Amino acid sequence: MSDLPTESVPLSREQRDVVDLNLLCSNGFFADPVLELGTEEQKREWLTPLTGPDTPMTALATTEPGTGSDAASVVTTARRADDGCLLSGQKAWISNAGEAEQYVVFAKTDPARRSRGVSAFLLRKGTEGVSFGQPVKKMGQRAIVCREVFLQDAFAPEEHRLGAEGRGFHGLMRTFDISRTVLGAAATGVARAAYEYARDYARGRQQFGRPIVEHQAVAFRLADMRTRVEQSRLMTWRSARRLDAGLDATVEAAMAKLTASETAAYRTWAAVRTLGGWGYSREFPVEQWMRAAKPEEIEEGTLDIMRLVTSRSL
Ligand SMILES: Cc1cc2nc3c(=O)[nH]c(=O)nc-3n(C[C@H](O)[C@H](O)[C@H](O)COP(=O)(O)OP(=O)(O)OC[C@H]3O[C@@H](n4cnc5c(N)ncnc54)[C@H](O)[C@@H]3O)c2cc1C
């Protein structure tokens, strides 16, 4: 990750509307539990297509209408049947649902237990008993569709279970260590774009006879933006380096995600402020980045949950 460029690549308005880093990274969210829990055969069958030219879309389904932050309390069940399990329940807020061909679904094989009762299953779109809700109408992030997934005795054969029964929650937590680091990078990118745009605008915009960057209030705001972007980038790199080295990165990933997503939220807001009234116009990209920053605070664990994970290490 240390080779990443630190200057942003300019995109056209049309490109900005369709490019979403979370979408580009979303197949990793599916692949990580397969890599963590899957057999060599499962990795070949389900991950090889992701490396080809016609990459299928994928999804990871854990959230439910009554279960969000407390992922161990999922109530979707996986009942034993001949040579496999029947999955029943309802998932909510699933990115790519309905569009995706392949799913990892988390369900309880032992409803009496919490995290140790959760198992992970691979499902294909088109499996009997799998259906989808309407797209959620969101504040932003238009490139990604989020839907409910309905499971009515959807059959997952034995060879579609990832890892041993009860190992699903462990796989989900390892997945979060990676996906929170990736999200840290995405949020850093949004914040960086906002900072660079605001900086360039402030150099060019004149008020009271000089560029607004020469007014100290504006310059200090930009200095804070730059500092926070650097901080997010370094914390994300540190988490990524630990993961690359095969080390535990649960706390580093949580701190990186917390820092980067707060940075994205506050610094895109600061960019809108730096453009004055024009920041509020859709002719400029900063309002879009402000909306794009919001889900970074929620997905894969809210800011409160990042603080909870970090506080457990004290
Ligand atoms: C754009 C988007 C895409 C998503 N994509 C997916 C996806 O692909 N797959 C998937 O499975 N899910 C997905 N989600 C769901 C997401 O993971 C959950 O929304 C998130 O985990 C929070 O759960 P919740 O919405 O039920 O909020 P809740 O858990 O009900 O939390 C509500 C509030 O209470 C706080 N809170 C809860 N527990 C605690 C605690 N112990 N201490 C302090 N505060 C607490 C939270 O921080 C939050 O502020 C997506 C969500 C969004 C917005």
How would you explain this protein's 3D organization?
Residues 166-313 form the Acyl-CoA dehydrogenase/oxidase C-terminal domain. This is Acyl-CoA dehydrogenase family protein. The protein has 2 domains: 26-164, Butyryl-CoA Dehydrogenase, subunit A, domain 2 (Beta Barrel); 171-311, Up-down Bundle (Butyryl-CoA Dehydrogenase, subunit A, domain 3). 44% of the residues lie in helices and 18% in strands. It contains 9 helices and 10 strands. The chain has helices spanning 13-18, 21-24, 26-37, 40-47, 168-204, 216-244, 250-274, 286-293, 303-311, and strands at 58-61, 77-81, 84-95, 102-108, 118-124, 130-132, 146-157, 161-162, 206-207, 210-211. The longest helix has 37 residues, at 168-204. The relative contact order is 0.13. The chain binds flavin-adenine dinucleotide. The site of flavin-adenine dinucleotide has 21 residues, from strand 1, strand 3 and helix 9.
